[in-house]
Amino acid sequence: MKTALIVPAYRPTEDMIPMLERFAAQPEFVPVVVNDGSGPEYAGIFERVPKGCVLLDHGVNKGKGAALKTAIGYVLQNLPECDLAVTADADGQHRYEDIRMVVESTRKHPGMLVLGSRAFDGKVPFKSKFGNGITREVFAIASGVKIRDTQTGLRAFDRACMEKFLEIPGERYEYEINMLLYAAREGIAMREETIQTIYIDDNSASSFHPIRDSFKIYACILKFAASSMLAFVIDAVMVLLMMRLTGGQARLSQTVARIVSATVNFIVNKKVVYESKQDWLPEMVKYTILAIVNLIINLLVVKPLSDLMAGRFFLAYLIVQVIMYMLNFVLQGKLVYNRKK
Length: 341
Hints:
This protein is α/β, with parallel strands linked by helices and 341 residues long. It has helices at 16-24, 43-47, 64-78, 96-108, 126-143, 159-165, 174-185, 212-217, 219-245, 250-273, 280-308, 313-336, and strands spanning 2-9, 29-35, 54-57, 82-87, 113-118, 155-158, 190-195.
């Protein structure tokens, strides 16, 4: 059987051609290159794509995720002899030896998603530090799985995974983090193989935009923030309403408000934020315990803090909720909706 070497290429460097030439000369590899709308100024590079490679053309730039899915779809439909696929970047950052190592690891561990993970030692460009440092922690919270290099473009997987990965949403860089989240949630084991860290010209050829693309990658945080804001609004409105109805009974008002807001928050977080497919009961029990702890902290802290702030109850309540929000994002991801096998 053969391996499809998938190379999504948007404005590639000259380093892509030697890589393709070397793999095109190997009978067990079929390079599949996607020109993701690089433009006429890069036509000369694509004209030199060696014989034996499949060259696909988007015409206009659609994004790395779209390019990967185009290539995966082509392999599934036209290359039945390829039982594996390995993705590699077009900027020369992945060594020949490392690509082969990841492929060999996949053959030794069938059914796994094998990642060529960088060690991030020595001099590392800011974009790579930014992209991996925060994302690594966010991914661990959102998925319950720890990965050293969440943004590596060197990944190998079998034909069964190809069919699943083809349906994953995301057209640009968010597709790669979505792939890891999908694997974690569906129980697809992931294995990391350490590869050499190579940055050419301080990684200037990378089209990763640290603000725009990180905004998409960190969608989990944004969804959690939106869910928490919804719960906060419900909680705050209920507190004010109950304070009026009970004649200022602070603890009773907080208790009733928290029951209502926590119910809404649990459902939204399960279905939308963490997209958990696990049984409702175990997660509901863990969430309830966490909600009770939150309520106890609120009952013990808000009123005394309010007294210290000259009776400004609602301001004290807001301060405590902001602190609890940050703690709850971590605790819910690691404890309540943890899908780690």
